């Protein structure tokens, strides 16, 4: 009997950090083994984002996403991949209370999924926690600007930095998480000049989503760029048209079942 083994050689956290100012870092979200296997061929890291609560589970915001759901999807993505670094989001309520709480939950995510890093939202206010985690062996990707877990406080999903007076706060956030030991930082929903300024000021790679090509890398939600959502935000470029393609396939199947042309000779065991 022979067993099939897949060679697993993943991009490491230091390799991502070393890409600062170099070749742009490619990243997408993925929540399942099959899409992750495709993304794995092209992405430096894959984020199992808590956006899965909205994209896959129909939630209005990411606030309701439970830890167990992140772990379940994280496991699937790790199983489906062998090259990309896998980063799993810490969901709302699992890290903000204290560094100890954050460590317990981040360690659970890493042990149970086999991912290589976690991501959490927040700037200066999360610096102490980021330092606590990184000093104890947990690589952290930070996330500032538009932070969806705080959408209730922000009054919705609003582009950050339109008012230049707010820039100092975002810059201070970026510096604080860098000094605390984050290896990279997501800049979400941020005006281009602010994203460019932050990218020049800090020593770790910035990963933009709605933050312009001035960042050191880019990330998009896979389902957004595949055209699976009814509404597309301005910052998303739609590379595929899967929504209408899936609908056409389902419609054709339904018609063929009804007129008994499926299953046909080719699909029948004789
Ligand atoms: O949850 C997510 O998908 C994210 C990306 C938008 C960066 O955090």
What report would you give on this structure?
By secondary structure, the protein is of the alpha/beta class. The protein has 2 domains: 13-239, Alpha-Beta Barrel (TIM Barrel); 242-270, no CATH class. It has helices at residues 13-17, 33-39, 52-55, 67-80, 99-113, 127-135, 151-154, 167-180, 192-201, 222-225, 242-258; strands at residues 25-29, 45-48, 85-89, 117-121, 140-145, 184-188, 206-209, 217-220. Helix 5 (99-113) crosses helix 6. Bound molecules: 3-methyl-2-oxobutanoic acid. Residues 29, 47, 49-51, 89, 143, 186, 188, 209, 219, 221 line the site of 3-methyl-2-oxobutanoic acid.
Throw out a few tags for this protein:
270 residues; alpha/beta; TIM Barrel; 2 domains; eight-stranded parallel barrel; 14% strand; globular; binds 3-methyl-2-oxobutanoic acid
Secondary-structure map:
Elements: H1 13-17, E1 25-29, H2 33-39, E2 45-48, H3 52-55, H4 67-80, E3 85-89, H5 99-113, E4 117-121, H6 127-135, E5 140-145, H7 151-154, H8 167-180, E6 184-188, H9 192-201, E7 206-209, E8 217-220, H10 222-225, H11 242-258
Helix pairs in contact: 2-4, 4-5, 5-6, 6-8, 8-9
């Amino acid at each position: 009997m022979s067993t099939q083994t897949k060679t697993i050689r993943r991009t490491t956290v230091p390799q991502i950090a070393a890409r600062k100012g170099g070749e742009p870092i490619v990243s997408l979200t993925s929540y399942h083994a099959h899409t992750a296997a495709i993304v794995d061929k092209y992405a430096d890291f894959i984020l199992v984002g808590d956006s899965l609560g909205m994209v896959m589970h129909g939630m209005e915001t990411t606030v309701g996403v439970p830890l167990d759901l992140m772990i379940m999807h994280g496991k699937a993505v790790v199983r489906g991949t062998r090259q990309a670094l896998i980063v799993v989001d810490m969901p709302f309520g699992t890290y903000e209370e204290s560094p100890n709480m954050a460590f317990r939950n981040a360690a659970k995510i890493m042990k149970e999924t086999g991912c290589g890093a976690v991501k959490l939202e927040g700037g200066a206010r999360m610096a102490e926690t980021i330092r606590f985690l990184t000093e104890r062996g947990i690589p952290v990707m930070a996330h500032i600007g538009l932070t969806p877990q705080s959408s209730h406080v922000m009054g919705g999903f609003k582009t950050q930095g339109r008012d230049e007076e707010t820039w100092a706060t975002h810059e201070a956030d970026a510096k604080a998480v860098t000094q605390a030991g984050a290896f990279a930082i997501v800049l979400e929903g941020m005006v281009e000049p602010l994203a460019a300024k932050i990218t020049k000021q800090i020593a770790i790679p910035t990963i933009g989503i709605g933050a312009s090509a001035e960042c050191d890398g880019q990330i998009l939600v896979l389902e957004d760029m595949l055209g699976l959502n009814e509404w597309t935000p301005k910052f998303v470029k739609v590379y595929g048209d899967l929504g209408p393609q899936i609908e056409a396939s389902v419609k054709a199947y339904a018609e063929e079942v009804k007129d008994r042309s499926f299953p046909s000779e080719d699909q029948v065991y004789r």
